[in-house]
Structure prediction request, 728 residues.
Amino acid sequence: MAKYNQHLLVCGGTGCRASHSDAIVESLNRALVERNLDGEVKVVMTGCFGFCEKGPIVKVLPDNTFYTQVTPADCDEIVAEHIYKGRKVNRLLYTNPENQEHVSDSKHMGFYRKQIRIALRNCGFIDPENIDEYIARDGYAALGKVLSSTPEQVISDLIKSGLRGRGGGGFPTGLKWQITSKVKADQKYVVCNADEGDPGAFMDRSILEGDPHSVIEAMAINGYCTSASKGLIYIRAEYPLAIARLKVALRQAREYGLLGENILGSDFSFDIEMRYGAGAFVCGEETALIHSMEGHRGEPTFKPPFPSESGYLGKPTNVNNVETYANIPVIILKGPEWFASIGSEKSKGTKVFALAGKINNVGLIEVPMGTTLREVIYEIGGGIKDGKQFKAVQTGGPSGGCLTMKHLDTPIDYDNLIAVGSMMGSGGMIVMDEDDCMVAIAKFYLEFTVEESCGKCSPCRIGNKRLHEILTKITKGEGTMEDLDNLRNLGQVIKDTALCGLGQTSPNPVLSTLDNFWDEYLEHVTEKKCRAGVCKSMLRYVIEPDACVGCTACARNCPVNAISGERKKAHEINQDICIKCGACVEKCKFNAIFVR
Amino acid sequence: MTKIKSLADLRKIKDDVQEKIRLRENADQPEKLVQIKVGMATSGIASGAKEVMNFLIEELEKRNVDAVVTQTGDMGYCFAEPTIEVILPGQEPVVFGNVNVKRADEIIEKYIKNGELVDGIIPRNYETIDNK
Ligand SMILES: Cc1cc2nc3c(=O)[nH]c(=O)nc-3n(C[C@H](O)[C@H](O)[C@H](O)COP(=O)(O)O)c2cc1C
Ligand code: SF4
Ligand code: SF4
Ligand code: SF4
Ligand code: FES
Prediction:
């Protein structure tokens, strides 16, 4: 067998595939064949490396060279220069935005330095469509270990590890398994929640695309521990690549007998089916998800009973999130003490976040619980784009809140985020700068909730609409002090009375911005001013008389004839007519028109 | 595909397939292993660096030394090509010049396995390559 001296890992995640990573694999292989290097260098398509914004990524091993934004046309040069002559292709290396230096070894990139990869351990490392590579990384060894132990022992270890649900709620995973395992029933189910409806989030998608077997293995372990013989993966149909990789993985696991009857010679049998969701946010809520799988409307129902007692088809059903599952095989192999040694006091292990917004390094990261927001934003995220000023960071998606400068040193974990009025959520993290208006941001999230509310209960259906109306009024410059009081009161009522988690958390973006950015709300209401210049109806276009030479250019170009004035004399804008299109500013060669 | 019927079967498969990803796992923690950089570029290749590199990779494996062998561009010692740089775990890099297969063999046996210095060491007047 030929021995490979080097591996070329090409990212095959959704982001990079959209920019032709398939063609990159082909071009690399072609270039290798041309130089007779195909026996020495192996090209592997992996899952996401996390640095999606600068994708497609090609990583050369063993020297860990990290090439960004590679195109098929670059492949020949990579092979001719780097592979053949050992000279790195500098123009494709990552450039440190601070000092403009090239960084070649991914281990030295600020983006990776503080990360610890547990859930993402195999993403960007193995070929997700090759079960052997997963097995080579100790895959299915945890299942083997569990099968020669008792469910009670495994559950007790899981409790000891301190693992909590990564789908948002943070419920202790071991405890949930214990509850499900104790309920007596002829049939039980194990469900993987891969709905991931949080806008901007793609943690679960990346895990399923990059390491599907880790989830399959953990579901089987879950089945053994709770005496369930059937697993269901509920995944949104908008994730075609994740679905395809899961299907390949399920087939391979069955072929090896790692799913099916009498797994690894034990008397445990287990198999998994896929179910597809249409992509409604509320269907990620576990009771709605179960109704949707049963073929009913995806509406939540009151808990209790919890799915662990009565779930799919009325049977005890253990629902866990994709990332929760991905952690489990490692915990079993390395032991609960190891896992519990990572993280903060009450939140153990790591969390995957999708970093987005006005930040230099947009992408997918995994950090130990207890890492501060500052470390994530400045060290891993590389700071704010274009040297602007940091203003806020939103965590927890539509259920979460906006945190500010004073929270930057908060260690991130479930309890700390709740204490400051936000949430861990599933792991979305959106960074905002001075150009973002916090009232408009709150309104954006409410728009999402109003759209996604299932309408079953009135606090959420009607209350959120009202909140949205009030916010719209404020952004138009028509808000009153009473409106601000109403926002707070109504928000609190919705929180206390809505039926499901969607409604119970939907006022968080409003309440947290009221708390943390009260000044900005006040300005909108009392001064009719939006400091970020986002709320268009509050902008005023004004001509500075001293600077205006009376050239008439603006008046001739105003589409609504809002500008008047005599030739060679200062002009003026009639605010009642002006539609704030900005055309005049562009036409004025004397910089006499200002936006205030 | 044959079924995996026991934990022992699984372990056997793991041993068989481990080879496929060993290079990747080693690259993940090079500082714990012997790291060797072979100067390639044009003068290196012309003087046989490629052959030396392949020899090193094969022999280190045969002799059970976990190592990460990478190539780099010119090291700036054209007079002594092929050159290789060896970093033993926790130690300073050492550069050897005029390395052919025979000398590579000696470097493995004496320096890498036993830490004995051999002839042909070039004083380092440069920062180690690719240290960014
Ligand atoms: C509105 C709403 C949306 C949710 N969306 C998701 C989701 O997309 N993925 C997920 O895993 N959990 C989601 N959850 C949480 C689930 O109800 C459930 O708690 C979780 O899947 C349990 O798994 P875990 O304990 O492993 O986190 C959502 C909850 C609510 C209220
Ligand atoms: S809170 Fe909203 S999403 Fe939840 S049940 Fe009520 S209306 Fe439906
Ligand atoms: S902003 Fe547009 S509408 Fe207003 S004065 Fe200028 S050109 Fe006219
Ligand atoms: S274009 Fe500028 S300088 Fe000319 S009239 Fe308008 S404001 Fe005055
Ligand atoms: S999809 Fe390629 S790095 Fe994320």
